[in-house]
Amino acid sequence: MSTPLPGSSDVIIKEGPFVYLSDWDGTITTADSNDYLIDNYGMGKENREKLSVEILAHRINFRDAFYEMLRGVSKVKSFGECMEILKRDIVLDPGFKDFYFWAKEQKIPVVIVSSGMAPFIRSVLSKLIGEEEAKTIDIISNDVKFNDDEGKDWEIVFRHPESGFGHDKSKAILPYRDLANPPTLFFSGDGVSDMSAAKHADHLFVREGKDLEKYCTAQNIPYTPFDSFSNIKHYVSNVMSK
């Protein structure tokens, strides 16, 4: 069961003793779909990685850098073309599908919290876990704006444009703390867009070798490294049994 948060039009609180929130790109998927588009159809991997270094050093913010990266893609590929590319080339972490349906059986809500765009996410999910599941899974993300009728000129619309993150993922977690009976919160992520959420979960899972791991290490934020959702299923099951 889900309940709209009072005073908010876009935050959904999931009820139950446990709630699992997760980044999408590079966490649930094996590759970051936005990075994939940027590297192959935008500014290229080298330029993207240079901007990522600047973000981690706090010399530029994620929102502005990410907008610049995606506008480079939109100059050469329509939104529809991008969607077809991602449906063709992006795959799930091998353990996610099993984890997702196991969590559903255990009545653990799974919420995707992404700095990507909802249409891209649902499109890839419809191919990989089925259209019905893709329609019903909760996604808190940015969106897209079209500047023409054909979808050739498109740009990202940030959920929190006032934030340097564009989408401040902590806002998907912190409202749970105000509940009379707050659930145990799990969060998994991999990159710089997850920094705002990292310190607020009860149990944080970080994909090994990625930027979020560097950030958590530097900030002394406790986390559990993972390389597959099969690992996460084991960890979550252990927490539930305590």
UniProtKB/TrEMBL annotation:
GO molecular function: phosphatase activity
Highest taxon above the source species: Eukaryota
SUPFAM superfamilies in UniProt: HAD-like
Keyword tags: Hydrolase
Name of the protein described by the UniProt record: Pdp3-interacting factor 1
